[in-house]
Amino acid sequence: MSALLNKSIWKSECKFVISATSFNQIPNNLHVPEVAFVGRSNVGKSSLINALVGKTCARVSRQPGRTQQINFFSLNNKIMLVDLPGYGYAAVSKKTRELWDRIILDYLKFSPNIKRIFLLIDSRREIKTFDMDVANLLDKLGLVYQIVLTKIDKISNLDEIISLKKDFIISHSAAYPRLICTSSNKNIGLNDLRSEIELLIK
Ligand SMILES: Nc1nc2c(ncn2[C@@H]2O[C@H](COP(=O)(O)OP(=O)(O)OP(=O)(O)O)[C@@H](O)[C@H]2O)c(=O)[nH]1
Ligand SMILES: [Mg+2]
């Protein structure tokens, strides 16, 4: 069930603000609440941002490893949607993987404006070691994250999957209790996610 949506935010233009390949390239004067989309390569982070704003802001690809920087997109200067590179993509060099992991971790640890982290999990896949590592780190840092299932148009056993993911949520102290199930392709769960984001805007 979604709360009332403040449609004006979602009707406003989604503006690309900046792309950063390291934490110190991120300007420290943004002062807008941020929501970050984190997850394995190819899980659907960029697609979900595009679906939320109703246009192609973020680059999407069938090949994992599409997003290679942190990209900031602003909605009416009220909220920043932050698209991160994916983790766990084996087909890039160790050096590149380490670079992406570093920028993801630095951003999560040091960004002052993060209001919520959406930890995306492909509904067809189990929660993997990398996801666990991120969740454990966020628990340790006390940063609230919310599990978002992606690509639910691809599955037929949603109830079973929800129940497994709920066990994961219960066992993680910083995991926000509400699970959101989405499909960017079929526009499922987008209003649920939009209303969560709206609650974070002052
Ligand atoms: N069926 C289906 N496919 C999706 C959905 N969301 C994304 N995809 C597909 O999954 C692939 C990866 O999507 P991206 O949005 O680029 O994934 P990403 O997490 O940003 O990937 P990286 O930038 O490489 O980390 C693309 O081929 C998308 O079309 C969805 O809801 N349903
Ligand atoms: Mg991407």
Which strand order do you get reading across the main beta sheet?
Answer: 1-3-4-2-5-6-7
Number of strands: 7
Q: What is the helical fraction, as a range of percent?
A: 25-40%
Number of domains: 1
Largest sheet: 7 strands, mixed
For the CA atoms, what is the radius of gyration?
16 Å
Q: What is the overall pLDDT average?
A: 92
In the predicted model, the low-confidence regions spanning at least 5 consecutive residues are none
**Strand residue percentage:** 15-25%
Overview of this protein structure:
This protein has helices at 7-11, 45-53, 94-110, 129-141, 158-170, 190-198, and strands at residues 14-20, 34-39, 70-75, 79-83, 114-122, 145-150, 180-181. It has a single domain, classed as Rossmann fold (3-Layer(aba) Sandwich), CATH 3.40.50. The chain starts with 6 loop residues before the first helix and ends with a helix. The radius of gyration is 16 Å and the shape is globular. The longest helix is centred in the middle third of the chain and has 17 residues, at 94-110. The protein has a seven-stranded mixed beta sheet with strand order 1-3-4-2-5-6-7, sandwiched between helices. The protein is an alpha/beta fold and 202 residues long.
Q: What's the gist of this structure?
A:
With 202 residues, the chain is α/β, with parallel strands linked by helices. Helices cover 33% and strands 20% of the residues.
List the helices and strands and how they pair.
Blueprint: H1 7-11, E1 14-20, E2 34-39, H2 45-53, E3 70-75, E4 79-83, H3 94-110, E5 114-122, H4 129-141, E6 145-150, H5 158-170, E7 180-181, H6 190-198
Residues 39, 41-47, 60-62, 64-67, 85-86, 150-151, 153-154, 183-185 line the site of guanosine-5'-triphosphate.
